[in-house]
Amino acid sequence: MKLTLVVMGEPNLDARIASAREAILSLAGEFAETARGTVEAALTRAMERLVVRRAEWFNRLDDRTAAALREAVQRTIRQSAERVGERLRDPDVWLSPSVVVEGEPQPELDEPANRAWIALLNAAGPLDPVLTEFGLQPSDVPDRGGGHFGLQPPRAGDLDPRGTLSGLWGRYRKLYETYRRALRAPEELRERQGEDRARKRWNEST
Asked: Quick one: CA torsion of 163, 169, 172, 174, rounded to 10 degrees?
């Protein structure tokens, strides 16, 4: 029989860590699924704005070519949104949430250091080859996230006007803090035990 030793007065630290991690990954799945639909809708809106902004280019296309472009764009948006959803299910995005070493998730979703926001921004990139194939010239300067046609949302509110993702982000940050406290607990416990041992040895010697 395997016995697990638990320090008197302390919860099972491994269980606390596992529970906090599970809560984060559960929310990550909800975030990823919500993001998939949100990204698809946002890119669809962005493409409509682009066509209106570049009306001269679009109106030169004959009906058959315009229909082919629309079909290719819609297919690429769906595929890109699916890839974003898959990326956002990666535990690393949530357990190591910042591109800054040892960095924590920033208060706002659309902070550049947040891995989740980077994943969302990358959604527009796959549209570049589709648009250039149909004769649209890309910008010389890439957008944040890698695209060249200004399709990336500059802020979370532009991506998600209803604020659903930002609400989920707020919940995630609370779960992450619980997770970090659980990770720190073993070291803090060892420090307290070391202090108690030193105090006891000191008092015994007097």
From this structure: -90
Token digits of residue 111: 């902070």
Domain borders along the chain are 21-166
Structure tokens at 34: 């919500």
Q: Does residue 27 contact residue 172 with C-beta atoms inside 8 Å?
A: yes
CB 143 within 8 A of CB 131: no
**Residue 108, SS3 per DSSP:** coil
Under DSSP, the state recorded for 146 is S
- The whole-model pTM stands at 0.85
> What size, in residues, is the chain?
206
CA 128 – CA 106 distance, rounded (Å): 29
Alpha carbon distance 24, 22 (integer Å): 5
- In sequence order, which residues have a C-beta less than 8 Å from that of residue 87 and are 6 or more positions away? 93, 119, 122
Tokens representing residue 103 in the block: 């960095």
Structure tokens at 173: 């940050």
CB 136 within 8 A of CB 127: no
Per-residue pLDDT of 53-106, as tens digits, reads 999 999 999 999 999 999 999 999 999 999 999 999 999 999 999 999 889 999
Helices 164-204 and 13-53, axial angle in degrees (round to 10): 150
- Sequence-distant (≥ 6) Cβ neighbours of residue 50 within 8 angstroms: 131, 149, 150, 151
Could you read off the pLDDT of 51-60 as tens digits, one per residue? Answer: 999 999 999 9
